[in-house]
Amino acid sequence: MGGCFTPTYPESLTCSDESTCPPGQGCEGLTNQCKPECANGTCELNLDARAVRFESVDREPLADVTLHITSIPGDLTAKTDAQGVASVKHLAPSTVLELLLEFVQLDPPTGGLFSTRYLGPSITNKPLSFDIPVVEFRWLAQVATDCGIFPTLEDALYTPGTANPNGYFIRRATIIGEVFDLDGTPATLTRSQIKVLNDGWTNFHANPDDTDTAPAFVCMLKVNPTTGTYVGTTDEQTPDGRFVMFRVRNGKDLPIGFAQAQITGYPEGVVVLRSAGDIGVVRMQKGVEAPTLPSSSFAAHVLPLMHQLGCPGCHQPGQPGYEMSQLRGGLKADYSGSAEDVRAVLMADSESCTTMNPSRVCLQMPDASLFYTKPRLETGGQPDHLGVAFPPNSTVLAVILGWITSGAKP
Hints:
The chain folds into three domains: about 45 residues, no CATH class; about 240 residues, no CATH class; about 110 residues, no CATH class. Helices cover about 15% and strands about 25% of the residues. It contains eight helices and 20 strands. The strands form five sheets. The protein has a nine-stranded mixed beta sheet, with helices on one face. Strands 13-12-18-19 form a four-stranded antiparallel beta sheet, with no helix packed on it. A three-stranded mixed beta sheet has the order 6-3-9, with no helix packed on it. The longest helix is centred in the C-terminal third of the chain and has 12 residues. The radius of gyration is 22 Å and the shape is globular.
């Protein structure tokens, strides 16, 4: 396809016949201008992602998994078929694939908790196909039992005295890793090698600074040849290149953030944790670059979302969102102008942001930014934003926080 397109969300991206790109050029955001981004004038590409059970050595496919591409505003979704494949069409070249995978778990019921997070390779100039390991909570609880964290599977599954999933897995996050040598064979790993950096905090096994009653715990995985699955082991080492780190936190003792798994001699394994109980899966292989942090631009990703939500209607002169806003950097909250003007309003006074007096955008403390916190609806609380509010795990807030975290680019 050689046409430029204007992204519209949440609808799939479409090519326009009104403008064409010369060979060797591609498309650029909202302006319908062509830039040398994609080979042969290709402006949209397709993705086939296959969901497979993480515990299965033979990569057993998993049907009826809902795949969310959370790095695209509007929550683009697809569901896996009987072969475990979810197909997504009309993706822009250079799209970063921050993925959320969810499926119904009834044994026990998980109530929407324990989603798998995965950061896939960027879409380049050709169709993309790859496997995404998906984690089942019951298997994760069995691993925690195998590793000696809990005496029985029942103890691992449930909060004591209830039928609710065990809070051990909810109050922090879990990182699961696949590690390969240069030739693609599983790496031999030792527990002491494994660290996970997460927004100002280094997680590792037996960290003396982690004084929680249930600190970070690393469990090695090995192949059970009888069942063809990966199981937990109390061994310090595994030849099978798999590990689980339970109870991952960030510098504020929260289960969210940009998590970076680190093993000496291997590229980082990276994943974005967005919510309590998230299970982040990382893949690390010598000689293969790690995926990059999803990087949003204001003009292409954030402003279209603001228009979709109707923000400029309230945030303009004469309307409550403008008239009731405080001056910050000499500017009120007017979101009715051009992308350049609206970003200037958001960035005003951003360098002097403090915890007690946050700015609309705080580059040093992204999660303190008013642009992120004002429309955030805390559980059981009242919205601090007239007209619309979003739960902490919403895609809208993920887009806003991702944009700020990656530098609030124009």
